[in-house]
Amino acid sequence: MTAGATELVRECDRLRAENRQLRRAVSSRAQVDQAIGAVVVLGRVPRDEAWGILRDVSQHTNTKLSLIAEHVLKFAQGGDLPQPELDEFRRALERNRIASRTDP
């Protein structure tokens, strides 16, 4: 194989890996957006607050946001939410309600 052909193979491999990564990112983003919608409905909060609640649960449970989103969507469809996440959602909603009452 020539040096030029070897370079092309490497570039092709790099582009395939980048493509896989981008596909995962787009899929994850769509799932997070859907989970935000579920939190809006379930928590009766505005969209920006729902995003903050998801982020807080992710940070307080040390769980990736994409996994939290996946669990929330299953919960919204009648499934179970892992107990640590459920507990943290309750705390996050309460923190959000307190903050909403104290904001001018």
Compact description:
The chain is mainly α and 104 residues long. The chain has helices at residues 3-43, 47-61, 65-76, 83-102.
What key attributes describe this structure?
104 residues, mainly alpha, 4 helices, 85% helix, 0% strand
How many helical elements? Answer: 4
Q: Which structural class do you get from the secondary structure elements? A: mainly alpha
In whole angstroms, the N-to-C terminal distance is 69 Å
Mean pLDDT: 89
Kindly provide the radius of gyration, computed on alpha-carbon positions and rounded to a whole number of angstroms.
20 Å
Uncertain residue segments: none
Number of strands: 0
Beta-strand fraction estimate: under 5%
| H/E element sequence | HHHH
**What percent of the residues sit in helical stretches (DSSP H or I)?**
over 70%
Sheet with most strands: none
Shape: elongated
What does this structure look like?
With 104 residues, the chain is mainly alpha-helical. It has four helices and no strands. The protein has helices at residues 3-43, 47-61, 65-76, 83-102. It starts with a helix and ends with a helix. 19% of the residues are buried. The model has no long low-confidence stretch (mean pLDDT 89).
